[in-house]
Write a structure and sequence with these properties.
By secondary structure, this protein is of the alpha/beta class. The protein has helices at residues 20-30, 33-41, 47-58, 76-84, 116-124, 143-164, 182-191, 220-230; strands at residues 66-70, 89-94, 104-108, 130-133, 170-176, 192-198, 209-217. The active site is at residue 174.
């Protein structure tokens, strides 16, 4: 995180209509240096710095040509990709509407829809070499249920990556509380040469989110060879 010296803490004006939880959220936003820096540098969300910090550690954006951004809204991650890999083709998908981003193809649809994978691939005109997923399920307030719903999305994203990535490609996804489930971790280790977990500095300490970074996709020929060996 760049910057110097702490700024004085900003205080909220009293508002009787504001709930205690919303007041805490607003206070945190006002005093968050990543929020201020995102506004100053033109990023749509502080989440952009999570991707920047992860890329500085793992260098998955270097030399990338085709990128899929799952859960693209509001667009901060695609903005980072555009700056760091300006020649890359990028396609993003989200249920929410995303304001246009120059050089990015945006699909407003459910990633879990049957037609979504084909539309994502068609928009790239070739296999991706990087699949990003910042998807999370809408919470229902039950911790275990919320975790299972989000991890279900992550698993679907992982299978999409495995079925579409070009050899040597990478997959990065947000996971929750404790990292990647054992079955998913086994799946990723089977198909990628390295699989690591990381929590970038921009990820708030009280957040249960982590990121799994799988690099060096072995390719579908390897998958077919392994399946033939089991036949």
């Amino acid at each position: 995180m760049r910057g110097s010296g702490k700024e004085p803490e900003k205080r909220l004006k009293a508002n009787r209509k504001r709930t205690a939880s919303s007041a805490r959220w607003l206070s945190r936003q006002l005093n968050d240096p990543y929020v201020r820096q995102a506004k100053a540098e033109g990023y749509r969300s502080r989440a952009a710095y999570k991707l920047i910090e992860l890329d500085e550690r793992f260098a998955f954006l270097k030399g990338t040509h085709r990128v899929v951004d799952l859960g693209v809204a509001p667009g901060g991650w695609s903005q980072v990709v555009r700056k760091r890999a300006p020649r890359a083709a990028i396609v993003g998908i989200d249920l929410l509407e995303t304001d246009p981003i120059e050089g990015v193809t945006l699909l407003q649809m459910d990633f879990m829809a049957d037609a979504a994978p084909a539309q994502l691939q068609a928009a790239l005109d070739g296999p991706p070499d990087l699949v990003l997923s910042d998807m999370a399920a809408n919470t229902v307030g039950h911790k275990q249920t919320d975790h299972l719903r989000t991890m279900g999305l992550v698993e679907s994203a992982a299978w999409f990556a495995i079925e579409t990535l070009e050899p040597g490609g990478a997959f990065l996804a947000k996971v929750l509380a404790g990292g990647t489930d054992t079955d998913l971790l086994t799946l990723l280790k089977k198909h990628f040469r390295t699989v690591k977990h990381a929590k970038p500095p921009a990820s708030r300490k009280d957040s249960s989110e982590w990121y799994v970074v799988a690099q060096g996709f072995k390719g579908r020929d390897t998958m077919e060879t392994e399946e033939d060996g089991l036949a």
